Amino acid sequence: MNENISSVSVNGVPIKTRGYQQEMLDESLRRNIIIAMDTGSGKTHIAVLRLKHESERELEKVSFSQYKKVGFLTFLCSSRGF
């Protein structure tokens, strides 16, 4: 399997992203979306990269009156069926 993998750095730690993760990140930057993917598919990586993007964007702003809140909602479900 030949997947498109890219890498970005968060505080000097490289985070590799697969093509579908980058696609979800890019779409989340265009509009508000809910990402629903299988366990272990990298939703947390997408959230970390989005938070990185938003924090860097906030640092570039001059006025705090333009401050925007970013939130992530995570549901944990039992995979054992009980």
TrEMBL record:
Q: Is Flavoprotein among this UniProt entry's keywords?
A: no
> Domain Helicase/UvrB N-terminal, which positions?
15-53
Q: Which GO MF terms does the UniProt record name?
A: ATP binding; DNA binding; helicase activity; hydrolase activity
Q: Name one Pfam family in it.
A: ResIII
Output the superkingdom of the source species: Eukaryota
Keyword Hydrolase appears in the UniProt entry: yes
**The entry's keywords:** ATP-binding, Helicase, Hydrolase, Nucleotide-binding
Q: What is this protein called?
A: Helicase/UvrB N-terminal domain-containing protein
Give the species.
Collybiopsis luxurians FD-317 M1
